[in-house]
Amino acid sequence: MNKKLTNFFPRALLHFTIIVFSVIWIIPSLGLFVSSFRGRDDVLSSGWWTVFGNFFNFSQYTLENYTEVITASGMGRAFLNSLIITVPSTILTIAIAAFAAYAFACMEFPGKQMLFIVVVGLLVVPIQMTLIPILRIYNKMGLAGTFHGIWLAHAGYGLPLAIYLLRNFFSSIPRDIFESASLDGASHNTAFFRLALPLSVPVLSSLIIFQFLWVWNDLLVALIYLGGTERVAPLTLRLSSLISSMGQNWHLLTAAAFVSMLLPLIVFFSLQRYFVRGILAGSVKG
Amino acid sequence: MNGNKKFIKKFNIWPWIYIAPAILILGFFLVYPIVNTVYLSFLDEGSESFVGLSNYIFAFNSKPMLIAFRNNFLWLVVFTAFTVSLGLIFAVLFDRVRYEPIVKSIIFLPMAISFVGAGVIWKFVYSYRPVNTPQIGVLNAFLSNFPDFEPVGWLINKVTNNLALINVGVWIWVGFCMVILSAAYKGIPKELTEAARIDGANELQVFWRITIPLMKPTIAVVATTMVINVLKVFDIVYVMTNGQFDTEVIANRMYKEMFQFHNFGRASAIAVILLLLIIPAIIINVHRFRGQESL
User: Fold this and answer.
1) Shortest CB distance from B180 goes to which of A28, A131, A280?
2) Which uninterrupted H or E stretch holds B17?
3) How many domains does chain A have?
4) Is B274 in contact with A128 (Cβ distance < 8 A)?
5) Does A250 touch chain B (CB under 8 A)?
6) B282 at A interface, C-beta within 8 A
7) Residue A221 maps to a domain
8) Where residue A224 sits, what CATH number does that domain have?
9) pLDDT tens for residues A129-173?
10) Is B131 on the interface with A (CB under 8 A)?
11) By the 8 A CB rule, do A104 and A112 touch?
12) Residue A35 sits in which domain range?
């Protein structure tokens, strides 16, 4: 294969193309990262790439942007809020989905097929269709602007995909594993906790990462149900209001943006394999 | 014993206990609101009296909505074409080098960060200063190297701004397309491509006559996903331009009708239009699922 390939498409050109694309892809993020460590005047008077002319002159870098956005601009509080929102939402979604998925895959009940088709249909329904009615109920029940409200909302929006993926996985477990353990009828609980769940740890991890990042990075759901309540605003919401209020203060905006990306980046670099697997399995959802 | 077993099967309560929480939540957060939103779309702004189709007539006639439709269409064509074709090109090219995992990570990285974060990243890339002042946005600075180049306000200029926004979307989503298409590409039996090469086919012929036809189902899945994304696009536009300078999109318009103008009838009608546009994708999904199940 290599010989033919070399004849037609010189390896050098191949490497060159790939490297050009990689550089194009990485430059925007690099600009953000570098600028977040530069002082206000530096950022406004010269391009961030000029630091590479004198890269090891450490006096041109500062951590002040970070201290300012974390304290004065409220990104520290927002980070905490994001955690408070994301962790329970993720656990709630996956736990509820696991039970439902097991029922769809391994149990018999009337209307099973029909109900599951509804779940498949709900996979791509735009969230916009649900905002007004739920916000009204939330306002009446005092759930708007609360963590409880947004946990439940995220569970609702995350469930179809989680149920779909887990159900497909549970269905792929060979039936004889369950049968050889001679489990039937009421001992489904044992089968679920002792067999299905332990076997699906890899799928569960993918799903947890997926849901975690989805909730962490969400803007719309937070915008609607938490609205202007700053006390409970997550990173995305805080950052989006900083964008409109800070205008050209790029030294602060870049630092704030990087704070909001920190955890996703750590998750991405340490657990990329699971993330990719989740995406591959979930490619039906938009 | 046998009779007992049958009894359990007939009146088994356990499946219902297992799915009850999911059904309650899905019913409350998805099924009921969908029905309710359709109903609200026929009511006035405060949802008090019936106004017939007037919210829909407004949606299809008001200037901002027409601009939003135009822009969503532009997104549909440009975004889908670029994400899918670049994803495919990357999948095929990267497969041929040993440092594939590294370049894949680089392309895939934007998938991990939020659209809001990506908005900050790209606003900075697009940032614009008048001529003869140092450009701090990397795009204008780079293009200033060319003679006679005048700096462009990428997000303000009505010729470039929609494409500038779409470009952010492409930057984020190509990684997604690449990952899925790459998995499909690696699944093509090597004997097929090898046989074609032995018969004298060149790389382009192999790509067009063998790779593409074999990957068609996956390309269709990826393209459908991208189309759904396009119709729902919101965050990028909301944080980068908020629909100013003719960059409005349907989802952002719905948000404005809801929160800025408090017109729940119109906002609901726009949401329903969004759903109607997505319904073909829902049907495709259900069909695909049924196809898989019958195998």
Assistant:
1) A280
2) helix B14-26
3) 2
4) yes
5) yes
6) yes
7) yes
8) 1.10.3720.10
9) 999 999 999 999 999 889 999 999 999 999 999 999 899 888 888
10) no
11) yes
12) 12-62
| B228 domain-assigned | yes
Pair of tokens at residue A55: 């890269």
Structural domain that includes position B263:
37-96+174-294
Instruction: Look at chain B and report how many structural domains it folds into.
Output: 1
Residue whose entry in the numeric block shows the structure tokens 């990243």: B121
The CATH number given to whatever domain includes residue B50 is 1.10.3720.10
Provide the number of CB pairs (under 8 Å) joining chain A to chain B: 299
Those residues whose C-beta lies under 8 Å from the C-beta of residue B185, and which sit 6 or more positions away, are B91, B92, B95, B211, B215
Q: What is the chain B residue with the closest CA to A118?
A: B286
Torsion sign, CA atoms B76, B227, A221, B115? negative
- Report helix, strand or coil for A151: helix
Q: Which of residues 107-136 of A touch B (CB under 8 A)?
A: 107-109, 112, 115, 117-134
Structure token pair of residue B5: 């077993």
This prediction's pTM: 0.89
For residue B73, how many other CB atoms are within 10 A of its CB? 11
- Non-local CB neighbours of B158 within 8 Å, separated by 6+ positions: B245, B246
Q: CA nearest B256 in A: which residue?
A: A224
Q: What is the pLDDT of residues A6-55, one digit of tens each?
A: 555 578 889 999 999 999 999 999 999 999 999 888 888 888 888 888 77
Rounded to the nearest 10 degrees, the angle between the axes of helix A250-281 and helix A235-246 is 140
Nearest to B277, CA basis, from B222, B227, B219: B227
Residue type, B54: S
φ, ψ dihedrals at A154, nearest 5°: -65, -35
A24/A115 same-domain check = no
Chain B residues 91-110 with a CB less than 8 Å from chain A: 93-94, 96-97, 103, 105-110
Shared-domain flag, residues A43 and A174: no
Rounded Cα distance, B18 and B193, in Å:
48
DSSP state of A192: I
Q: Tell me: the pLDDT tens digits for B11-40?
A: 678 889 999 999 999 999 999 999 999 999
Residue of A129, A138, A154, A206 for testing the chain B interface, max B β-carbons within 10 Å? A129
> How far off is chain B from A125, nearest CA to CA, in Å?
7
Residues whose CB falls within 8 Å of the CB of residue A164, separated by 6 or more in sequence, listed in order:
A101, A119, A120, A123, A282, A284, A285
Q: Please report the ipTM that was assigned to this predicted complex.
A: 0.88
